[in-house]
What we know:
The structure is a single chain. 44% of the residues lie in helices and 22% in strands. The protein has 12 helices and 10 strands. The strands form 2 sheets. Strands 1, 2, 3, 4, 7, 8, 9 and 10 form an 8-stranded mixed sheet that branches. The chain has a two-stranded parallel sheet with strand order 5-6. Strand 5 (143-145), helix 7 (151-163) and strand 6 form a beta-alpha-beta unit. The protein is globular.
Amino acid sequence: xxxxxxxxxxxxxxxxxxxxxxxxxxxxxxxxxxxxxxxxxxxxxxxxxxxxxxxxxxxxxxxxxxxxxxxxxxxxxxxxxxxxxxxxxxxxxxxxxxxxxxxxxxxxxxxxxxxxxxxxxxxxxxxxxxxxxxxxxxxxxxxxxxxxxxxxxxxxxxxxxxxxxxxxxxxxxxxxxxxxxxxxxxxxxxxxxxxxxxxxxxxxxxxxxxxxxxxxxxxxxxxxxxxxxxxxxxxxxxxxxxxxxxxxxxxxxxxxxxxxxxxxxxxxxxxxxxxxx
Length: 277
């Protein structure tokens, strides 16, 4: 075959390749939305319900990364996620002020509770939450912490500060460095106390032996979740269209109604309360 024939064949291959690429309905990656979220939305089962609905309605595909809120926010700050769903308002406000996230919207809330063994060796049942933390420390009762810089861990540390207690290094203070589900399991196994969001506790309580909610209802235990887009200016790889669609989906009337009912049939109460603005 002549050199000219090879050149024509090469040109034909290039043209065919360009036609194939043009036929792809947008870059395949543009349909993938990376969601960095707290483990409570995963452990509660809420995302397992909502993500398929979002994908069906929009054509986007969600890749969820369930980590502590601190890690989720760090992924957003580095531009390694497209959209965030977290529950650490103070840290989120700092992210927004620094320009790392945009379009931050309220989605839902539940509350934190102190769970522990039914026998309640530290005698905290019904106490105000700060008093219960102080009582646990005085009794030297086992307390299991996530220790992972999550929203729950941040709240826990603030409660120790309010109680005037530094638990670090104490023999009764156990840090798992893991999510809420695993931390609840360790607390159950060790007959210890822990701070948890109500939704994850309710979803897993059938696996937690005689562990009960012992402290609840304090106003400082309010736990609100926000959804927000990672600022698309951080990276050309950020799927801003997918992120914007996910934010709109989470605050839509349809999803807010789903959140209001989620868990009622199984647990007798919703795991989250809709709270969109």
